[in-house]
């Protein structure tokens, strides 16, 4: 099977089993999503969701966050990974949005990555989720799952993974595709022990065919 056919099989499968995938971060507007994604770096969405309600209640928008005190923000996110850096990122992000973007969160990857705490992955998440732009966010799940299935070949970095995926995924599907791979990696294609016996991608998955097939399929 060539890569184009493998991609099409995956798209068809996910369209059937997960037609409307969404981020598991809780948010009601662009500001809240940006804050949540910054906080989610190397942290679970579940833990982020536990702490953002209090943060959003105290700082409901960019101006209030820009005027916040570091110690107060830190106190609200201290149970999230790297709370010191993330507190500084949140404050810096809010201040730069006001100073450079007139208080409006920009909606291009090139502008978003100028904000503290915002890398290419975060910028791709924001633009694809909020504006449905065809930008592929690559986190650890997407990077791992893409390689296992065989959607990417020898991709060493998130950017290499992104570029390989973008070559084969139709633009209109891109905003869904990274959610599909994230959720698939979170609940089925788990890092240490993938649940291959439950996976509908067995027919096209390189990892299953090479590693798991003999373990799951009884000898005849």
What are the key terms here?
Endonuclease III, domain 1; 220 residues; 12 helices; Endonuclease Iii, domain 2; 2 domains
Quick structural overview:
This protein has twelve helices and no strands.
Average pLDDT, rounded to a whole number, is 94
> Which stretches are low in confidence, meaning pLDDT under 50 for 5 or more residues running?
none
- Tell me the β content: under 5%
- Multimerization status: single chain
Here the CATH topology of the largest domain equals Endonuclease III, domain 1
CATH architecture of the largest domain: Orthogonal Bundle
* Structural class by sheet pairing and helices: mainly alpha
How do the helices and strands follow one another from N- to C-terminus?
HHHHHHHHHHHH
Number of domains: 2
């Amino acid at each position: 099977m060539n890569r184009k056919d493998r991609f099409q099989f995956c798209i068809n499968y996910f369209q059937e089993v997960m037609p409307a995938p969404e981020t598991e971060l809780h948010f009601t507007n662009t500001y809240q999503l940006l804050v949540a994604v910054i906080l989610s770096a190397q942290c679970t969405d579940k833990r982020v969701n536990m702490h953002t309600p209090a943060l959003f209640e105290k700082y409901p928008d960019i101006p209030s966050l820009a005027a916040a005190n570091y110690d107060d923000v830190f106190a609200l996110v201290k149970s999230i990974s790297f709370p010191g850096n993330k507190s500084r990122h949140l404050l810096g992000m809010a201040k730069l949005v006001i100073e450079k973007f007139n208080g409006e969160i920009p909606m291009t990857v090139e502008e978003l990555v100028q904000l503290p705490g915002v890398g290419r992955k975060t910028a791709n998440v924001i633009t694809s989720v909020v504006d449905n732009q065809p930008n592929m966010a690559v986190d650890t799940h997407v990077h791992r799952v893409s390689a296992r299935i065989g959607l990417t070949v020898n991709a060493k970095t998130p950017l290499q993974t992104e570029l390989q995926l973008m070559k084969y995924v139709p633009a209109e599907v891109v905003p869904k595709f990274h959610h599909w791979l994230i959720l698939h990696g979170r609940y089925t294609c788990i890092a240490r022990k993938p649940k291959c016996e439950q996976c509908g991608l067995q027919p096209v998955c390189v990892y299953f065919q090479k590693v798991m097939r003999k373990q799951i399929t009884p000898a005849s």
